[in-house]
Structures are given as structure tokens and as C-alpha cells.
Specification:
Layout (H helix, E strand, L loop, with lengths): L1 H16 L13 H4 L6 H6 L1 E5 L16 H7 L3 H10 L20 H10 L4 E7 L26 H9 L6 E7 L6 H8 L6 H18 L3 E5 L6 H4 L1 H10 L8 E2 L31 E6 L19 H13 L2 E7 L9 H17 L7 E9 L3 E7 L2 E6 L7 E4 L9 E4 L9 E3 L5 E4 L12 E6 L3
Parallel strand pairs: 1-2, 1-7, 2-3, 3-4, 4-5, 6-7
Antiparallel strand pairs: 8-9, 9-10, 10-15, 11-14, 12-15, 13-14
Helix pairs in contact: 1-9, 1-11, 4-5, 6-7, 6-13
Catalytic activity: an alpha-L-fucoside + H2O = L-fucose + an alcohol; a neolactoside IV(2)-alpha-Fuc-nLc4Cer(d18:1(4E)) + H2O = a neolactoside nLc4Cer(d18:1(4E)) + L-fucose; a neolactoside IV(2)-alpha-Fuc-nLc4Cer(d18:0) + H2O = a neolactoside nLc4Cer(d18:0) + L-fucose
Family: Belongs to the glycosyl hydrolase 29 family.
Subunit structure: Homotetramer.
């Protein structure tokens, strides 16, 4: 606690003592300085991540956006959740009572890490704390409302972090909600018009600092910020400390959810909004978070297979995101007992199988000068050094397949990543383009999508 208090005090003086970056100088506690920090290279190269929503909300596991169950039940008093509780629980049942059934008895972090590694993902973002305020680690600022004092009686964050870090090339990140729906200190600050900051300095910031110092996450996925400005959250002061003096200052990545008005404007990479789907190439590094369950981020006991993304849809969505320079963060919601639904596992392993064949076109790639074209089948482009990848989201119906965008040369070579050692015949068109003679038989694809590797094209 003494270390945390000292760090928090230091946050308050960053705006005064820090100077603009350059030549080894420090980042100042203002957005101009914070936004000038280069994004650590590992994040852009990773491309694919797994998002994990898990908490007390996984116990009722009910309704659209089940991770908001407490709010729907007691805040908005939505009919579905109110009716569910009346039908299945006694009148005096409290949300806190669900924590006793959040036992995580089948949670095996090594099994989770095996699945995430098999998915082809290069980073994992795990829920440290959602808007309900329950901490999945032994937070000293959340007595009896954390995973060690009640429920699982184990450090879920620490256990998963250790398992993830056994896998070479797999990075560990943490999701943290700044606000909590029903915390009395937050409600008190809110009633003041956010002129007071008791919740920030007694709860939100101490927990963030504790997570950084204890687990050293490589990514902080901030959320729950939108009701108050960044000045209430002291966001720039925290980020200045994070970038200047924290143990993860050289490699940590953050998103853009640091206060009302920050989305798509300030921070590290941009989330902008859930399931962000730009229509053209953004001018800043971005990420799309997308849940396999189209109706929820947390687990739903009443989910139906028709409500889940199938593997071809996941592949298409991922390819689109990467071609437009984004990262793809695919979400699952584990069950309250720590099991990952076989349906989710099947999707993740299928994605990994596709990436096992075609990952060369995804990892460490860059957007090409043209991101897509309307050929006889949908085509998206990525590039890496002097190689261009044309990702076909359907197999052409004819043996001759035309691409209009590439400009050929005498050094041009075309192959399909399913069998990259075999060159395909092609002829050029003018002024740009080429016609490829496709294989007689369609290669088997783990999902949907085949990649033509184009070398020696401009």
C-alpha cells in the first residue's frame, strides 16, 4: 500500500515536472505529449488477439450483453432480467450472492493458454475487472469483492498470466473498467458533477497501479470511462507515469478509452467503439473487438448456435480488419466454472488452422496501396516488404482468374500459400493487372479464404 500511495502522489505532479518527449526526455501529462509516443512494434505485428470476459456475471449467464446483468436487473430494471430473477431466485437474493457460485472449479490456465496458442492469436486480453467491480485478483482496494476473498479463492489474473507467459510469442494484456455502476464513491463523485475525485484516488487509480506493478501487462484495455472527462480520471497523469516510470514503460500498449471525448482521438491505438468497422483505411492504428457470440461478451447459458459467428464469417471479418491496417480482437465468454464452451474452442482452433496455412499474409503485414478490389470473387490485399498477398474469400468458378491492381514485372512470381513451392502460370494485362491460371482442384481450406502470394509486383 505504501508503494501504491507514493506512486499516486507522483501522478499528481507529472503535469508540472514532465517535459515534452525527445532526446530521452519524459512524456508530459497532456494529450499532445502522450499521443506523440510511438506505438510499440509488437502490437502492430501481432494482428490477432483473444478477448476474455469472465466474472461474477458469468454465474447468471443470461440475457443480451450478459456481462451487464447487474445493471439490467437493478439499474435499468429491464423486464427480461427482472423476470428471470423473480422466476429463479428468492426475493431477498442479492447480486453479491452470485459470487459464491463463481467457483472456477474447472479453470485450468494452461488449458486456456493451449487453446489461445492454437487459435493463432499473438496476445490475450483478460478481464481484470468489469463494470460490476469484482476483481479477478486480490485487490486490496476491493475487500471481499475479489476472486481471492470470495468465489474461486485464487488469483485468476496471476494464474492466467503465468500460463500465457510460458508460450513464446504470446503477449498478456488486461481489461480494466474505470467506473463501477453502484460503487458509493463513484455515485458520490457523479452526483457532484465529477467535481470530486474520491473514487478515482481511492479505487480506480490504486487498482490500475496495482495491476501494473504486480502483473506487468503488455497491454491495458481501458473501458468504463464515458460518463466523465479524462480530467476526472486523471488519465494523462496516469499515462505519463506509465510511459515514463512504470516497469512496463518501454513495451506497454494502451487503447483510447480514457474519458468522454477520447475515443478515436487520444491514447495508443483506437477502439473507437465496440465492433468498430471503418469503411476505408484509417489514418491511425486501430483494433476491432468482436465477440463470437453476437449477442453478448460474457457467457450466456441461453445462447443458440445461430447467434454465433461461424468460422468462415470470422475469417472474412479478420481479413477485412487486417487489410485495413487493424488488429482483430476476438472475444469469448467462459462459463462460471472455468470451462470454455466447445463451440468457442472449435471456432478458435479453426481460426488457428487457417492461420497455420495463411498466416504469412496476416502477421507483420501492412496495408497495400489498394486494400480491396471487386474481382469475380471478393479480394483483399496485404503486403510485406516486396511481397503482396491477394486474399480470396471464395474460390473462383473459372480456371482463369483476373486481378486488376497488381503491376507485374519480369521478376513476378505467383503461388498459393497452400502450396507455395509451386509457381502458378500467369499472364500480364495492361497497364496493370494479371490473369492467373488457378489449380485444377480447389485446395482444402480450414475456413474460407485462399491466399495468392505475388512476388515481384509493384
Amino acid at each position: 500500500m505504501a508503494t501504491t500511495t507514493l506512486i499516486l502522489r507522483s501522478l499528481l505532479v507529472f503535469a508540472v515536472v514532465a517535459i515534452s518527449p525527445g532526446n530521452g526526455a519524459r512524456y508530459a501529462a497532456n494529450w499532445t505529449s502522450i499521443d506523440s509516443r510511438p506505438l510499440p512494434v509488437w502490437y502492430d505485428e501481432a494482428k490477432i488477439g483473444i478477448f476474455v470476459h469472465w466474472g461474477v456475471f458469468s454465474v447468471p449467464g443470461y440475457g443480451q450483453f450478459s456481462e451487464w446483468f447487474w445493471y439490467w436487473w437493478k439499474g435499468a430494471q429491464r423486464a427480461a432480467e427482472v423476470g428471470f430473477m423473480k422466476k429463479n431466485y428468492p426475493p431477498d437474493f442479492k447480486y453479491a450472492d452470485f459470487a459464491h457460485d463463481f467457483k472456477a472449479q474447472f479453470f485450468d490456465p494452461d488449458e486456456w493458454a493451449d487453446i489461445f496458442e492454437a487459435s493463432g492469436a499473438k496476445y490475450v486480453v483478460f478481464t481484470a475487472k468489469h463494470h460490476e467491480g469484482f476483481c479477478n485478483w486480490p485487490s486490496a482496494d476491493s475487500w471481499n469483492w475479489n476472486s481471492v476473498d470470495t468465489g474461486p479463492h485464487r488469483d485468476l489474473v496471476g494464474d492466467l498470466a503465468a500460463a500465457i507467459r510460458k508460450r513464446k510469442g504470446l503477449h498478456f494484456g488486461l481489461y480494466h473498467s474505470l467506473y463501477e455502476w453502484f460503487h458509493p464513491l463513484y455515485l458520490k463523485d457523479k452526483a457532484s458533477g465529477f467535481k470530486t475525485q474520491e473514487f478515482v484516488f481511492r479505487k480506480a487509480l490504486p487498482e490500475l497501479v496495482n495491476l501494473v506493478m504486480t502483473y506487468e501487462p503488455e497491454l491495458i484495455w481501458s473501458d468504463g470511462d464515458w460518463e466523465a472527462p479524462d480530467t476526472y480520471w486523471n488519465s494523462t497523469e496516469f499515462l505519463a507515469w506509465l510511459y515514463n516510470d512504470s516497469p512496463i514503460k518501454d513495451f506497454v500498449v494502451v487503447n483510447d478509452r480514457w474519458g468522454n471525448g477520447c475515443y478515436c482521438k487520444h491514447g495508443g491505438y483506437y477502439n473507437c467503439e465496440d465492433r468498430f468497422t471503418p469503411g476505408s483505411l484509417p489514418g491511425h492504428k486501430w483494433e476491432k473487438c468482436q465477440s463470437i457470440d453476437n449477442r453478448s461478451w460474457g457467457y450466456r447459458r441461453n445462447m443458440k448456435i445461430i447467434e454465433l459467428m461461424d468460422l468462415p464469417t470470422i475469417i472474412e471479418d479478420m481479413v477485412y480488419v487486417v487489410a485495413l491496417g487493424g488488429n482483430y480482437l476476438l472475444n469469448i465468454g467462459p462459463m462460471e466454472d472455468g470451462m470454455i464452451s466447445p463451440l468457442f474452442e472449435e471456432r478458435l482452433r479453426g481460426m488457428g488452422a487457417w492461420l497455420g496455412v495463411n498466416g504469412e499474409a496476416i502477421y507483420s503485414s501492412k496495408p497495400w496501396r489498394i486494400q480491396t478490389e471487386n474481382a469475380t470473387v471478393p479480394v483483399w490485399y496485404t503486403s510485406k516488404n516486396n511481397t503482396v498477398y491477394a486474399i480470396l474469400l471464395a474460390w473462383p468458378s473459372k480456371l482463369l482468374f483476373s486481378l486488376a491492381a497488381p503491376k507485374t514485372s519480369e521478376a513476378t512470381n505467383v503461388a498459393i500459400l497452400d502450396n507455395p513451392s509451386v509457381s502458378l502460370k500467369w499472364v500480364s494485362t495492361t497497364p496493370t493487372g494479371l490473369v492467373v491460371v488457378m489449380p485444377d482442384n480447389m485446395p482444402v481450406s480450414p475456413g474460407r479464404g485462399w491466399v495468392l502470394k505475388l512476388e515481384g509486383v509493384e
